[in-house]
Design goal:
By secondary structure, this protein is mainly β. 3% of the residues lie in helices and 54% in strands.
Length: 282
């Protein structure tokens, strides 16, 4: 399946979100949140910080939230491009905050690295939940919690990059881990999204593919091969939510700020997976 290049000349795109007819994403290492017009290829800077920026989402009143990774903050963008602190996680975590999911009731879920992936052995850490400004940590034991997507109104699924697995978590009532699905060794699952048939589409950061996994049975298949590319996130978009947008860059991050190898590709699933579409809940 030949992709369409939608956006290019990006350093390190992640946190893809389809929102009100536009594709939003973070250029993590550049510290920029973009709103992209997929019809024209034009990018608009919505947020710019020193670095690093990761997860994004919206409150039900419309305000944008984003994660300042190194400061370990969730920040709210106010009108006229001002920003204010939404939640401070720096007193709980010593390593970077990571991706984030914002529910329709304004519950916010945020993961953390938990360790320095450049120098440390993997260490498990807690998942943060923010409700009405109150922070707690109802789930522990996640190894580099990364992409987060909602399955339905009861459950979310989280990629654990350096554990090569995804974890399904019950979020209503008694928050608890329901199941973990082991992925092939060295898969390095990063961002993910869930479709209408109960499958997760998972970007395999260093395994050069999108993996499609049945969240009930654990059945899995490499749905899209992307040889030679680091594959960092995916989401559904388009009028029918049947376009899969995929964030790629160089697997070696050393020179991405100089070379800007990052691209966002679009795959038309109506041609290859008829009837499959997103749920609009990422």
């Amino acid at each position: 399946m030949a992709p369409k290049v939608v956006f290019k000349a990006i350093a390190f795109p992640e946190a893809l979100r389809w929102h009100k007819g536009n594709l939003w994403f973070s250029d993590v290492l550049a510290g920029v949140v973009y709103r992209g017009d997929v019809t024209t290829g034009q990018l608009h800077k919505e947020v710019e910080i020193a670095q690093l920026v990761s997860g994004i989402g919206w409150l039900n009143s419309g305000e944008l939230l984003f994660v300042d990774c190194e400061k370990r903050l969730v920040v709210q963008r106010e009108p006229k491009d001002n920003s204010s602190l939404y939640a401070d996680l720096s007193g709980y975590w010593i390593h970077n905050a990571n991706d984030m999911h914002v529910d329709s009731d304004n519950t916010v879920w945020v993961g953390t690295y938990g360790f320095n992936p450049e120098s440390d052995a993997p260490v498990a850490a807690d998942l943060a939940r923010i409700v009405n400004g109150k922070i707690d940590f109802p789930i522990s034991g996640l190894v580099f919690a990364n992409g987060i997507a909602r399955i339905d109104d009861q459950k979310i699924v989280i990629a654990e990059t350096f554990a090569d697995r995804i974890s399904v978590i019950q979020t209503r009532g008694n928050v608890k881990l329901i199941k973990q699905i082991a992925l092939p060794k060295n898969s390095t699952p990063d961002g993910l999204v869930v479709d209408n048939q109960g499958f997760a589409w998972i970007a395999l950061a260093y395994s050069e593919a999108i993996l499609r996994v049945n969240l009930e049975t654990g059945e899995m298949k490499r749905a899209i091969e992307l040889p030679g590319k680091g594959v960092y996130d995916c989401t559904f978009g388009g009028p029918n939510l049947d376009q899969l947008y995929v964030a790629t860059s160089d697997i070696d991050e050393t020179n991405v700020m100089r070379d800007l190898p990052g691209e966002i590709l679009s795959f038309d699933l109506a041609l290859t997976h008829p009837g499959v579409h997103g749920l609009g809940n990422k």
